[in-house]
Amino acid sequence: MNMYRPGRLVCRWLLLLILVATTAGADQTLHVPATPGSGSGASLVIHGALDLPQMRPLLAGFHREHPDLEVRYRNLTTLALHERFMAAPDEADVLLSSAMPWQYRLANAGHARSLESSAARRWPAWARWRHELFAITFEPIVMVVNEAVIERFGEVRGHADLLVLLERHAETLKDRVVTYDPATSGAGYTYAIEESRLSPRYWDLVAALGQAEAELVETTGEMLDGLIEGRYLVGYNLLGSYARDRLADQPQLRIVVPEDYALVTQRLALIPRQAPHPAAAERFLDYLIGETGQAVLARETTLGAIHPALEGPGTATSLRQERGEALRPITLGPGLLATLDDLKREALLTRWQREFSRREAR
Amino acid sequence: MKRGDSLYRRLLGWLLLPLLVLGSLILIQAWVDAQRTADRAFDRLLEAASLAIAEQVQWQDDRLWLDLPPAALDMLATDAEERVFYSLVDGQGRLITGNADLPGDPRQSLGGADTLLYRHLDWQGLSLRQGIRRTRLEDWRVREPFEVRVAHSREGRDALAAELWRANLAMILAMAALATVGLLLAIRAALTPLTRLRRAIRARDPRTLAPLELSLPRELAELRDTVNELLARMRRVRANQERFIGDASHQLRTPLAGLSARAELALRQDDPARWKEALVAMQATSARTARLAVQLLSLTRLANPEYRPDLVPLELNAIARQAVRDHWASCHRQGVDLGVETTGGEVWIPGLDWLLAEAIGNLIDNACRYGGRRVTVRVEDGPPRLVVEDDGPGIPESRRLLMLRPFHRDRDDAEGSGLGLAIVDGIARTHGARLQLSSGHDGRGLRVALQFPGEAP
Lengths: 362, 457
Fold this sequence. Notes:
The complex is a heterodimer of chains A (362) and B (457). Chain A has 362 residues and is an alpha/beta fold. Chain A contains 17 helices and 14 strands. Chain A has 2 domains: 6-138 and 266-329, Periplasmic binding protein-like II (D-Maltodextrin-Binding Protein, domain 2), CATH 3.40.190; 140-264 and 336-357, D-Maltodextrin-Binding Protein, domain 2, CATH 3.40.190.10. The longest helix of chain A is centred in the N-terminal third of the chain and has 20 residues, at 4-23. The two termini of chain B are 46 Å apart.
């Protein structure tokens, strides 16, 4: 044991150095080499739409469990990830993406490999599709409200409050509200289509946003930047996981998980049918949906763990206890295919645009 | 005797085999039915989804337009999490929208009617069930035809079909088990009388020939009656044999007793002339006894149904002439006129010459012995026939059959053995010939004819 310890420590340091070193590159990749002398030297290629700070602890945890595997992670945007897969379906072993409809379409068309492990069988049915597509995170879509607004106009607890706030104080909040542009952001479009299904009053909210001449941006990051800088007072439909991460030291900004309904988006993982290293891929996916990986997810990231055995901060269980029925995870089902329908998209965006400019025109 | 060849097994085999075939057919039928039922149930989903989509198709910006309802796709997937595909295709077959370019309805256009086609589809390695709705826009001006094609994978259907089939399977298996048990009991019950019959036969005293008294079902009663008939025949045969043996021993005892008495009488005498006289008489008696023994022997042999000598072609005229030559001297001594009548041509029959000579000899002997003064041996042709006719007193018609029985004599006669006609009868049977007794010429005397079968070869 005594002989062994220093060696392991050196390994850790090496690993950390490599992690740091590789993130510096413009091409966002992580490389975790196999611990020397650990045998097989098999490798694993992961393509994901998950930022490196969130991914790093996950990979470190995986390396602790499977030191014999060399892991290469490439961070891509959801769109690039999808296109890259369609161009070269035998490149990656695991696809990890928050673009649920695209991931679903791949699995639906039979591009995914079935994972038949005990962890896969125990995984809650609502968080997987067949044994091919697994939701591994639990990320509520939230509002971010500046405390100043709350002080002036009262609590904003849900969509109804927001609607009232926007309608009553459209002039005050003019240009100070920010949300996704569904026309340019895939995530924004997905939320729009889900919300329009959930509540007919969504269109009133869109109209109210239009009335307040809300800024339309492409990413949660942009919204957070503007909110932190104080350009915006209210952010609508932000990815909760990123907001929690960035706003930990911003007491003037309050994250609101809406009480009436809160969409929950999930990152979906699948193993492509033509994965070059399917055995390694299965080990990684097993780790992701296993208690260890999920515990890392809950403890060291803000992504939210799904595993039903886990409790406490950063888990779906605790969030459910808090918000209960209001949480609406996006259903993993064929309905997602409608999201990707070109005509549907055109129809929804046309409607959205019409509603958004409804009151403006008056 | 072999274990494999038992009535029980045979019945069981022949009843179980059709049962098995029938059962298999029912199982196949149940499987087909289950699939059909599952398809019918799940086809409703295709129908509803395609309708929900078709209702959303509009004419907008000079083209077909669809605001796809997500619920329409959701309803295509059940708990089995089927893969779902859909597409909207215009009248020219161009894909308007959809997640898969599914093949279309191969049927010819059926006008404007709203039609729905279900079919199985193997598409890109997936086994799918497809529903194609062909319809058209019901707009005031635009009546554009279009097709909504939806499809989903078969997991839900297969699961339902398997479930239905398993339910049927349990019932069919239970029925099969009941039928088998019933069959076993029925066969056992049906074969019980056979066991009783076997036991009844086994339990019998082996020496008894008494009929079986046992109530049995019709098929076995026939068998029992047949066995009883056989037993009755055996009883008669045994009675005949016993009488024959009795008669034969009686016949042999009388001359032996005579020999013994004659010897005893001679021994009391001292005159050698008397001794010689006695010896002569004893020689005649022993010769007659020897002949009797020979006759008994040949009768026994002829009476044996197993006795099948090899017959050779014989010329009847020659046989008849030879027999007359052999017997002419003795007849002449007794003052009997023995003659022969032969046919012009040759008459061939299959036979044994010594047996036929024996028969003719017996008949001539009989004729001489019972008062014939004129005996004729005649050969007739077509059918071949050997006739011995005399002018003696003859035998009344009512007693002619009796004469064929061994040791039956028409009147007391120390010389005759009573075997003559019985032996001739046996010889006739050996040759497959018929023995006919009738009155002779002018209704006098006796005419004995052996009619041989068919023409000589």
